[in-house]
Amino acid sequence: MRPGDRLPPLEIPITRTLIVAGAIASRDYQDVHHDPELARQKGSPDIFMNILTTNGLVGRYITDHFGPRARLCRVAIRLGAPNHPGDTMMLTGTVEEVDGDTATVRIVGANGLGKHVTGTVTVRVEG
Amino acid sequence: MKGEPEADEEFEARLKAYEGRAAAATGVGRDPVNQPMIRHWCEAMGDTSPAYTGPDAVAPPTMLQAWTMAGLTHRPDRTAAYDELLTLLDASGHHAVVATDCEQEYLRPLRPGDEITFDSVIESVSGRKTTKLGAGYFVTTRTDVRAGGALAGTHRFRILKYAPAQRTPAPAERRPRPVVNRDNAGFWEGVARHELLIQRCTACSAPRFPWLPGCTACGGPDWDTVAAGGEGRVYSYVVMHHPPFPAFEPPYAVGLIELAEGVRIVSNVVGVPCDEVRIGMPVRLEFRRYDDELVLPVFRGVGP
Q1: What is the pLDDT of residues B218-273, one digit of tens each?
Q2: Domain locations in chain B as residue ranges
């Protein structure tokens, strides 16, 4: 792994099932993640993915790429455009920095509305 | 909020006073780290890493916060101070919440059986910010997560507490308006009277459509009109499935219709399922009103 390396993109269909399954798996029962009517009352056109699911997907994207010896050290994400049902999120990543067995990867998850998530992940790949 | 700056400053000062105070004090995870929750998580995320299964399984590091979540019925392990801050925001109309940032550091892996405890502090409360969702305040907390008493990870989390912006419903989309100019004004005047007028050259009698200033056959500048009788056939067609344009509901059929008078016109083929439209299908002219300003000629399929 070298600075500038690009990770193969990962396309994630944003289904209603993924949003709800991710919310429940993270024990997040906020209504905006499962109830479209209540989401609308709060100014959102539909339910949207919770941040814990986005975090989990970002972690998976990195460990899928670097393999079973990869250990996540740090994940820092910021959310932008929400992930609504019917959209698709394309995760892309670029290695920014390499220090011994540790890499910092800049990630972007873009959907039809714009950038859903931007952030950096630090991962250690034991030799 | 203009006109009440002092009240705003006072309110923001009240919010700011919570910075540095505990948000959770020795919260206890509802369940120890456990394989079923790990499996549910991995299934939802589509994560098939072998690190999360088997006798040496660890939990996905990104589950860190999940182990601290209160769940559906349990009251969150919040301090009175954090409850007060959230109540202040709720009571001032900022009752909706959305998470915006999450920064986690993982110091050691969590394994099934680990008992989780956590402490959290209110790091900062922003000034009032205007966002797409509505105006509100960003509240940042920092949480230390421990397993069996030893620090396993830290978690900085930012939420926006906001007053939902009033959504004005979008006006129903209207069909695009025709471009009416001096060369085609007569055509649209005819449509308004439910007549489909075809130009005819007064020199050579050639019909022409769409409307043009000169004859396409002899170049003659003079013309009169004939009203189409309304009979025609589908000369060619497409069925639009995608993309959906405002005011159009796919799928719909767009036909190139050859009129009995010998000219062709593009319009919708209606009255038959669009997958039954065929080349050569007889059609009959009718006029359809789309809104209080727009009438268009369309063609109804009249059987094979």
Answers
A1: 999 999 999 999 999 999 999 998 877 788 888 899 999 999 999 999 999 999 98
A2: 5-164, 185-301
Gap from A4 CA to chain B (nearest CA, Å)? 23
Q: What is the pLDDT of residues A64-101, one digit of tens each?
A: 999 989 999 999 999 999 999 999 999 999 999 999 99
Considering its fold, how many domains does chain A have in total?
1
Alpha-carbon span B111 to A118, nearest angstrom:
29
Range of the domain at A109: 6-125
Confidence of residue A44 (pLDDT cuts 50, 70, 90): confident
Partners of residue B33 in chain A, C-beta under 8 Å? none
Q: How many CB atoms lie within 10 A of CB B291?
A: 10
- Is B6's pLDDT higher than 50? no
What is the model's pLDDT at position B167? Answer: 59
Tokens for A124?
């250690």
| Closest B-chain CA to A54 | B45
Mean pLDDT computed over A47-58: 98
Contacts of A54 (CB under 8 A, 6+ apart): A77, A79, A83, A109, A116, A117
Q: What is d(CA A26, CA A31) in angstroms, rounded to the nearest whole number?
A: 14
Residue in B66, B106, B109 closest to A26 by CB: B66
Q: Which pair of tokens denotes residue B177? A: 């308006």
ipTM exceeding 0.95? Answer: yes
CB atoms < 10 A from the CB of A34, how many?
17
Token pair in block for residue A26 = 């993270």
Identity of residue A16: R
Q: Please, what is the average pLDDT of chain B?
A: 92
CATH architecture designation of domain B185-301: Beta Barrel (2.40)
Q: Please tell me the distance in Å from B41's CA to the nearest CA on chain A.
A: 5
Q: Which residue of B has its CA nearest to A41?
A: B164
- Is domain B5-164 annotated with CATH 3.40.50.2000? no
| Dihedral over Cα of A27, B63, A50, B88: its sign | positive
- For residue B264 the two structure tokens come to 């062709």
Mark yes or no for CB contact A26/B61 under 8 Å. Answer: no
Question: pLDDT by residue (tens digit) across B93-144?
Answer: 999 889 999 999 999 999 999 999 999 999 999 999 988 788 999 999 999 9
| Beta-sheet pairing, B264-270 with B295-301 | parallel
Cβ-based interface (< 8 Å): residues of A facing B: 12, 18, 21-22, 24-30, 32, 41-44, 50-53, 55-60, 63-64, 68, 71-79
